[in-house]
Amino acid sequence: VRMKSRIPLILLACGSFNPITNMHMRLFELARDHLHQTGQYQVIEGIMSPVNDDYRKKGLVSARHRIAMAKLALETSDWIRVDPWESEQETWTETVKVLRHHYSESLSLLQSKKEFMKKKRPIERSTEDSLSYQRSALLELKLLCGADFLQTINTPNLWKEEHIKEIVEKFGLVCVSRAGSDPARYINESDLLTKFQHNIFLVKEWIQNEISATQIRYALCRGLSVKYLIPDSVISYIAHHNIYTEESERKNEGDLLQPLKLHNTTLNPLND
Questions:
Q1: What pLDDT digit, counting tens, does each position of 6-46 carry?
Q2: For 84-122, b where at least 16 C-beta lie within 10 A, e where not — what string?
Q3: Cα separation, 48 vs 143, whole angstroms
Q4: Segment (H or E) for 215
Q5: Element (H, E) at 35
Q6: pTM: predicted TM-score of the whole model, two decimal places
Q7: pLDDT digits (tens, 9 = 90+) for 77-117
Q8: Residue of 228, 51, 69, 50 lying closest to 219 (CA atoms)
């Protein structure tokens, strides 16, 4: 199948990126290869969306730094970019709302591109071209995640059922898992995931790549080398701004994650 008749697809990854690692970027590459191999899709863009500071995760450094580090890391990519929208909102934003935002943004961008092309060459456009224009109205946006994401879906109070439903039904998931893990099991354990499993793409990572951002922060706090685990430009930025310290690791200590906090207040509004 030639790329022209494929459905254009955007991959969106939400997370802390604290800091961005080579593994985060590998997830995009693996997912793109897998989706191209299906013969149905052409991945046109990857978007990394660092979480808002209000998420309250322990050791989460300011979004300003996390975005700057991701920008530096992604200078070497010609298709993945970091987007600050989620981190610039006043409070933590639920993942489904981030997906809705980027979908409508991308759709209107695509529409204006199509309008521009129509004006530019209305006469010489061939039938084949107009067919591919019709197809491009089918733009899809999928949430890119690690297989541990499927595990969190079964965590009580972390996700709203209707949000999970909208994510898997309207958008879809691309889950990258290491060769040893069994993401199909998590799908099997959830009626909702089973119902929409046609919209969940499981990508195997055959080259072991267990870079953990948490372990990288620990190494940095201890003054150990993290070279070849994260880009050199990011290492320089961290050193220059002295970002990861014992003090930064204590940030939000003892705090509940924002989604859990919100769930508790809705259940028990008098708990203040």
A1: 999 999 999 999 999 999 999 999 999 999 999 999 999 99
A2: eebbeeeebbbbbebbbbbbeebeeebeeeeeeeeeeee
A3: 10
A4: helix 213-221
A5: helix 22-37
A6: 0.87
A7: 999 999 999 999 999 999 999 999 999 999 988 888 777 77
A8: 228
